[in-house]
Design brief:
Distance between the termini: 42 Å
Number of helices: 8
Shape: globular
Oligomer: single chain
């Protein structure tokens, strides 16, 4: 099945994007990423070393840019100014790399997006030539504004970051997807494989996750499960599910033309 995810003009076979935080060591990080089949790997610049701390182990040693599309993100930023500075640093460290994930948080308890600061940061970054994938609320109006600004992908939360609560408002996600043309990827809140499958069955273009894999009892096995869930959910969406028939049963086997019956 030739069904590629297209982001900022580049195609990807995997619709699962994964993070690199919260693993016990680099060996587990590498094994989980490989098991996930992900091609886009997000890296929190404020929490991970990709060369800004000389002499310390670098993520680039186990996840080389020659093999993966690295997606620097602004996790831990609470203002547009901090987010912009962080991604400027990332571009410098990664030799002009422009594909980034923008997230500007509202508070340290909920980690809910501050959409006002997010919009301000997106405008600045896009004016400077960045290709911005943006974490936001599941508000379809805000999503349309971010698309109009020029964001390359919209990434609404399914539920709070790290909560594992799954998709709390599928109706908003569907409204959002109806209103934007750029890829929509669920970001935050996935807890297990069924959550990822549901996101894909709804028609999302992809899913990004970190904690759901890293905090599992067996992260490598969970990464493999998430890979299969995203693939199955996408296939089910493309296949088109049967219509729901409330208060009406229909036998699986034909009832007409049976032997001995007209």
């Amino acid at each position: 099945m030739n069904d590629k995810l297209i982001i900022a003009g580049k195609s990807y076979s995997s619709r699962l994007l994964v993070g690199t935080g919260k693993y016990k060591d680099f060996a587990e990080t590498k094994a989980a990423v490989e098991a996930s089949g992900a091609e886009i790997i997000t890296i929190a610049i404020r929490r991970s070393n990709i060369g800004q701390n000389p002499g310390e182990p670098s993520l680039l040693e186990i996840l080389p840019p020659s093999k993966y599309t690295l997606l620097p993100n602004t996790a831990g930023c609470y203002s547009a100014g901090d987010a912009v500075r962080t991604l400027r640093l990332a571009r410098e460290l990664l030799d002009g790399h422009n594909l980034v994930k923008l997230e500007v948080l509202g508070d340290p308890q909920s980690l809910y997006p501050n959409v006002v600061e997010t919009i301000a940061a997106a405008k600045t970054l896009i004016a400077e030539g960045f290709q911005v994938m943006v974490y936001t609320s599941d508000d379809p109006i805000i999503a349309r504004q971010l698309e109009d600004i020029g964001c390359a992908a919209i990434m609404p939360l399914a539920s709070l970051i790290g909560s594992g609560m799954g998709i709390l408002n599928p109706w908003n996600l569907q409204l959002l997807m109806e209103r934007v043309q750029v890829p929509v990827l669920v970001d935050a809140g996935v807890g297990t494989a069924s959550d990822a499958a549901i996101a894909m069955e709804l028609g999302c273009d992809g899913v990004l996750m970190n904690t759901a894999i890293a905090a599992a009892q067996n992260p490598v096995l969970m990464a493999s499960a998430m890979k299969q869930a995203v693939e199955a959910g996408r296939a089910a969406f493309l296949a088109g599910r049967m219509p729901r028939k409330f208060y009406s049963a229909a036998p699986s086997s034909p009832v007409a033309g049976l032997i001995g019956k007209p």
